């Protein structure tokens, strides 16, 4: 299924399990089913083909900042709403608002063959603003409690400039341990620029 959002200059396509994606009045909604996740444990030999979660992705061109307020209907441990970057089957990254494992937390996962897993800061309530930025081979993750002051979370790459420049970017929902959760994304924004300073809150 293809979906066009008024705030984004590129179309989105569904990947993985059915996320029941819908978009109305500036609000995108998706649903993760029971035990749906995307994570390659460092102790695993390979990615289980069944280890997947609903994704809605598109291909922005050039430098960008991709922003959304994420709200998660938490039901189980590690339920999350995600901004997702995909370069290849074993090269992708997640910026999450996750119940990790018993308090809402901004978390990141970067997968280069196998996944790492890092917690950033906790959040009061079930919503937070998330931002993914790209320039050249560089990707940056930020999060914000109010959509104004941005907290630097991570700077990394998933490949060379050609690979990262062709990345798919968008949304994912996950419920690794529970029976499913609903995620909504609003205050969507796309800026065709890299942030002036990654660490000054702008």
TrEMBL record:
Pfam family, any one: DUF1349
InterPro entries: ConA-like_dom_sf (IPR013320), DUF1349 (IPR009784), UCP022704 (IPR015987)
Protein name per Swiss-Prot or TrEMBL: DUF1349 domain-containing protein
Native species: Streptomyces bobili
